[in-house]
Amino acid sequence: MRRHLFASVAVIALFAVFDGVASAQAQDAGATSQDPPAAADQAPAAAQQAPVDSGGNLPEVKVIQQQAKPKPVKQAQKKPKVQPQPAPQPVVEAAPQAPVETSTSEVPPSNVKMSPFGASSIPVEKVPAAVSQVTATDFKRDETVIPQEALQARVPGIIVGDLQGNQFQTNVQYRGFEASPVNGVAQGLAVYQNGTRINEAFGDTVNWDFLPSNAINNITVMSGNPIFGLNALGGAINIEMKDGFNYQGAEVDTRFGSFGRKQVSTQAGQQVGNFGIYGAFEAINDDGFRDFSDAEVRRGYLDLGFKNAWSEFHFNFTGADNHVGVTAAAPEELLAERGWDRTFTSPQTSDNTLQLYQLNGTVKATDTLSISGNAYYRKFKQKHVDGNIAEAEECDNAPGLLCIEDGLAFANPATPGVNPDGTINFDPTAHYGSIDRTSQDADSWGIALQATDKSRLFGYRNQFTVGTSYDHGRVGYTANSELGIFQPRFVVGGTGIKFVAPPDDDDCPVPVEPGEECGSDDVTPRNLTTTNDYFGAYFLNTTDLTDRLALTVGGRFNYAQIKIKNNTDSEELEALNGTNTYNRFNPMAGLTYQLAPGLSLYGGYSEANRAPTPAEIACSDPALPCIIESFLTADPPLKQVVSRTVELGIRGEQGLGWTGDRLNWSLGVFRTLNTDDILSVADATSNGRGYFLNAGDTLRQGVEASVEYRSRRLYAYANYTYLDATFRDSIQLSSPDNPHAVVCDGAEDPLDDDAPHCVNVRPGDTLPGTPRHRFKVGFDYWLTQKWKFGSDLVALSSQFFTGDEGNQDSPLPGFARLNLHTSYDITDNIQIYGLFENVFDRRYGLYGTYYNAELANVGGAADTPPIEFEEPDEGGRQRSITPAIPFAAYGGVKVKF
């Protein structure tokens, strides 16, 4: 019901925008879908003056051209009309009036925001760090609806990882730092949308499936800038959405294709005088190529704006209601013997909903001083269902009864199948599993203020920015586990028997041995409330010491207070209660030097910090492990992570003759040292459970290179990253399912078959999941004035499995994937296109980890026909991977108004 209501509201809003667009188009009957919108000619003079630089919604001439590029054949017939700009940037010359011009030749904005919002932009050649920008044109190149895929193609150092087995909820990894939707992944990137931090309150996760791809105006990825606050260890990703000032027109895009893909995307924007309105909506249904990997995505965006010569304000809303099947990794033997579409334990689903309301604006107080503000409210809900194998067996001390995790299992006596004393009878014919359920109900709000002054400092050109922010988050978190029975295809069917906390030892229905407990707390339901309070204050100053040399200095003070309250009656879980406080000042400094027009050097040093999340703090006791994403336990204090980054580089932007061809390129080196890095590790004795710990120092260093070429008919790019991501300390980490693991130091009985197993990590060992070589290349070519063809290649080297931090096992092999895309303009308003993914149908893994073959055989016995996995003493490798999507083809029709 709520999906239909959400879709109805979005469609009604879009029809209102369509009506305004149609009225404006009727006044210019000669305009085509590729011509500049007529509304730009009808705006009053005040609305056509230079817009105030006010953050994520600020229009510039080049952005308007990006959304309404003239078609090649029309370029010579009708000169585009543009709004006057008092101080055009060098990028304007990248729009030559050539006989043939393509929509792929858009030059990224030449200014970069140095803070999440407001009038903090400086020219890219003055940024003392690596910067990459992805524009709306990059999304249109291959018609991707996955923002992560566009980032992977265009940004050196970024790759997409897939822990969950669904393309809508993949990880973005930049230089070995993650922005992931999965709790349990160490988050090392700060992500902003229109000036609002969108790392979720509970685990700093990032839900990329909430972003309507057609509503994204541009994305900036920047390293080495602590102004973006907590989590900016490896850098920051700043997403700016479209509005009615930088997009005019309307578009409907429908698509069908492999694995049941059906989708429709709509967007429309209009400027009327000093007001602008923009709306976008995407509805996507996909069955997925694996069992139970279907996705139903509904997401939309609406922006209402006002601007005049001295101010600009925007109110916007982002909404989403998504269901995603997260099929995760599967044993290599299962994929090889039963098919690439097989999954390992189901159901595994996530239901995510979002409401994000934002208000931001900038006022030009004087000719040099701008005041900006940003306020938001965010409502996020998530329900996660996870079918698992379970350590269920007949109790040694109570024959005929069921034990879980070596402890007596208890449930509500009123539940059918449960004994009056709460115990559960053991069925020797059953193949037991479990269904773990978690939920988050998060309310977040925040406010930020910023001032930017561009007055000269002692006669030098100067820009000074100072700001402050406050973010508050409150999360209600619950988790419980239900006894399940394995069915064919590793599906875990529910029994309705939900585990509860065991009674006190004195009330235990069976005798309790000295030193033992009546039951297991590992499956006890959790109910807790977490509260986050984050405060930040920052400054940033850029001074032109000479016409060529610019100095940037700044810093940010971060304060984080995290409270956790247990809402259950369990005395064991009272240890969850507590308050943790972290604070730090992070400095930055850098220089840029312009060697020649369009050629500059940069160098900088910066620090950043990440406070442990509530999920990490509440699951950091090795004595009480928890299921990552599920159960939380006591909270020994974790230290905050601090990163120190040094980088040097050179970048260039040159025109190549009178034809308007352009060449952009960059080359840089970087080194980031993390102190007290936080890792999640598997528990040595309890299957499927783990905990977080500070694992000493880790280092990420390497080289990045990129080149981009634009001509009248050809657009081409290539980028390469060499990444050396390593541990810097000797440490022993639990890894119970790695066949190469050894008995942990300090084990009570090293000769016991159930003794805990660990891997020994040495300085220089490579971090799992970090390919050393990353290469991307692609092009678009206009075969005719109406027909375009292009391709994109991603190639990654091998990576070590999660759980093989000691690098003793053979790594997950690298891969190369080729995608193709083509489009044909039937008329000025109608375009057909085709997309082809993994053209050579390569079979490879995107992520690797380990599983327990002995327990997996319980589920395997229920499959049809049964399947048996080899255990390590039989030569089994216990390796599981997330399989990549095989060959897929999609076709669509795009109509513009």
TrEMBL record:
Protein name, entry field: TonB-dependent receptor
Compositionally biased residues, Low complexity: 34-51, 61-75, 90-100
Renumbered residue ranges of the record's region Disordered: 28-112
Similarity comment text for this entry: Belongs to the TonB-dependent receptor family.
Any GO MF annotation of the entry: siderophore uptake transmembrane transporter activity
Record GO cellular component, one term: cell outer membrane
Highest taxon of source: Bacteria
Pfam families named among the record's database cross-references: Plug, TonB_dep_Rec_b-barrel
GO BP terms in the entry: siderophore transmembrane transport
PANTHER family noted in UniProt: BLL6183 PROTEIN (PTHR30069:SF39), TONB-DEPENDENT OUTER MEMBRANE RECEPTOR (PTHR30069)
Organism, as annotated: Hyphomicrobium denitrificans (strain ATCC 51888 / DSM 1869 / NCIMB 11706 / TK 0415)
